[in-house]
Write a structure and sequence with these properties.
alpha/beta, Spore Coat Polysaccharide Biosynthesis Protein SpsA, Chain A, Jelly Rolls, 3 domains, 6-stranded antiparallel β-sheet, 5-stranded mixed beta barrel, about 35% strand
Length: about 475
C-alpha cells in the first residue's frame, strides 16, 4: 500500500493561525505534532511503503522539514505549481507510480484530518484493501454523530460481503432538516475525502470519465524535473488541467464506487468550533484555554493566546484567538464568516493574509518586530550550516547586529566573520550574503532603512534552495 498525502489548501477558516504561507496542515493544532506529521505517524507500520506527499510549491521546504524533524521517512514530494483540486493531484501520484513500473494500492489521505482511534482506522484500512484488490474505488464513510450541515454525505447501497457497501449516491451538504433525516435513517455517512484504489484502476476510470485531466497530468510529468526531494511538474501543462475534485470527476460517475464505514473519532478540523468540539482539555465551564488566559463568567468558549495575556469576562460561546500580529473575536456559531475577513485581507493586499509576523524560511526564520515609514527591524535566526541567498537590494540599506552565534558575512568580494555584539553595514545596491558556519543557531537583529522595504526588493544571484526564477 502506498499512502498519498494531499497537503494543499490554505485553511482560511482557521485564520489568524492558518495563513497562506503557513496553512493549517503545517500547524500543531491537536497535539505536539503538526497535522501533517500526525497524518503520517498514524499509518499502519506493516505492509506500507514510504508515503508520497503532494503540496504547493511554496510549501516545499516547510513540508520536507516537518517530516525530517519528526523522523518520518518519505518517498518523494510532488510539487503543484498551481492548485487544481484533488482529481489531478491524485492522477499525478498514480501516473508517477505507473511510470516507475509499479501499480500499488493508493491510500489517499488529507494532511489536515483528526483521527482519534488509530485501531479503528487501521481496521477500516484492512477492509478497504480487500475491496481495492478487487478493483473497486473505495471511499471512507464516517458514522455521523450529529445532524451536521458542514459535510457532504454518502448514501450506502447494498452490502458487499461484510467488508463495505456499494455507494448509492453522493449528496451535497444538506440543510438541518435533511441532515436530521439522514442521521435518523442510518443510511447516510459523512464524506471523509479519504480513498483507496489501485493506481491503474483510478487512471482507467479517470481516463474514461475525465480524459482531459489525465492528458494534462501526463504532459506535466513528461516535462517534470527532479530537485532534491522534490518532483517539479511542468507548470504550463499542469496549469491547463481542469480544476476538479475526485468526487465530481470520478466517484459520482463510476460504477466501481464503494464505501467502508469508519467510526474513529474523525474530524476535518475545518473551523475553530470543531477544535473546541474535539478538545479533551475543557475546564469545568466547558471552555478550552490555551496560553496566558484569565476567564470570569465565561462558558462554552475557545480562547487561544500566543504571547499576550487575554482576559474574557461574562461571555458565552465565543472564539478568541491571538497571534503576534492579529486577534480574532467571533461568536462560535459565526466562525464560517472568517472566510469573508480573509477575503478582505487578500483584496486589500494586507500581509496578514499570507504571512505571520514570524516568517519561516528554509534557512531559518525572521520576525518583523518593529516598522516605521522608512525603517524596519527584524530578528533573524539562521540554522547551523545554512545560508541565505547571494542578493542585492535597490532601495534599502541593512545594518546587522549579531546577538548570538557567529555569522559569515560576504559584502562584495570580501568575506568576514562577525561575532556576538559585533555589527556590519550593507549599503544600498551592494551584493551580499549571510551564512551560519557554526554548530549553534545564529541570531541577529537587522535594521533596514530606505525608501521601499518590501520583500520583493530582492535580486538573487545564487540560492541553494532553488528560489531564483528560471
Amino acid at each position: 500500500m502506498k499512502p498519498v498525502v494531499l497537503a494543499g489548501g490554505t485553511g482560511s477558516r482557521l485564520w489568524p493561525k492558518s495563513r497562506a504561507a503557513l496553512p493549517k496542515q503545517f500547524l500543531a493544532l491537536t497535539s505536539e505534532h503538526t497535522m501533517l506529521q500526525e497524518t503520517l505517524l498514524r499509518l499502519p507500520k506493516q505492509d506500507v511503503e514510504d508515503a508520497l506527499l503532494i503540496c504547493n510549491e511554496d510549501h516545499r521546504f516547510l513540508a520536507a522539514e516537518q517530516l525530517r524533524t519528526a523522523d518520518i521517512t518519505f518517498d518523494q514530494i510532488i510539487l503543484e505549481p498551481v492548485g487544481r483540486n484533488t482529481a489531478p493531484a491524485i492522477a499525478l501520484a498514480a501516473l508517477n507510480e505507473i511510470k516507475k513500473g509499479n501499480d500499488p494500492i493508493l491510500l489517499i489521505l488529507s494532511a489536515d484530518h483528526l483521527i482519534e482511534d488509530q485501531a479503528a482506522f487501521h481496521e477500516a484500512i484492512k477492509k478497504a484493501t480487500v475491496l481495492a484488490q478487487a478493483d473497486k474505488l473505495v471511499t471512507f464513510g464516517i458514522n455521523p454523530t450529529e445532524a451536521h450541515i458542514g459535510y457532504g454525505y454518502i448514501e450506502a447501497g447494498d452490502a458487499l460481503d461484510n467488508e463495505g457497501f456499494k455507494v448509492k449516491k453522493f449528496v451535497e451538504k444538506p440543510d438541518i432538516e435533511t441532515a436530521q433525516i439522514y442521521l435518523d435513517g442510518k443510511k447516510h455517512f459523512w464524506n471523509s475525502g479519504m480513498f483507496m484504489f489501485k493506481a491503474s484502476v483510478y487512471l482507467e476510470e479517470l481516463r474514461a470519465l475525465s480524459p482531459e485531466i489525465v492528458n494534462a497530468c501526463e504532459k506535466s510529468l513528461e516535462n517534470s524535473q527532479s530537485d532534491l526531494d522534490f518532483l517539479r511538474v511542468d507548470e504550463i501543462s499542469f496549469s491547463a488541467c481542469p480544476d476538479d475534485s475526485i468526487d465530481y470527476a470520478v466517484m459520482e460517475k463510476t460504477e466501481k464506487a464503494c464505501m467502508v464505514t469508519l467510526d474513529a473519532g474523525w474530524n476535518d478540523v475545518g473551523s475553530w468550533t470543531s477544535l473546541w468540539e474535539t478538545a479533551k482539555n475543557k475546564d469545568a465551564n466547558n471552555n478550552v484555554v490555551l496560553g496566558d488566559v484569565i476567564l470570569t463568567g465565561v462558558n462554552n468558549s475557545y480562547v487561544n493566546s500566543e504571547q499576550r495575556l487575554i482576559a474574557v469576562i461574562g461571555l458565552d460561546d465565543v472564539i478568541v484567538v491571538e497571534t503576534k500580529d492579529a486577534i480574532l473575536v467571533a461568536a462560535k456559531d459565526k466562525v464560517q464568516n472568517i472566510k469573508s475577513v480573509v477575503n478582505q485581507l487578500k483584496q486589500e493586499k494586507r500581509p496578514e493574509f499570507e504571512f505571520h509576523r514570524e516568517v519561516l524560511r528554509p534557512w531559518g526564520c525572521y520576525d518583523s518586530i518593529d516598522t516605521g515609514e522608512r525603517y524596519q527591524v527584524k530578528r533573524i535566526t539562521v540554522k547551523p550550516g545554512e545560508k541565505l541567498s547571494v542578493q542585492m537590494h535597490h532601495h534599502r540599506a541593512e545594518h546587522w547586529i549579531v546577538v548570538s552565534g557567529t555569522a559569515s558575512v560576504t559584502i562584495g568580494e570580501n568575506t568576514s566573520l562577525v561575532a556576538e555584539n559585533q555589527s556590519v553595514y550593507i549599503p544600498i545596491g551592494e551584493v551580499h550574503a549571510l551564512e551560519n558556519p557554526g554548530k549553534v543557531l545564529l541570531e541577529l537583529i537587522e535594521v533596514q532603512s530606505g525608501s521601499y522595504l518590501g520583500e520583493d526588493d530582492i535580486v538573487r544571484f545564487s540560492d541553494r534552495y532553488g528560489r531564483i526564477p528560471k
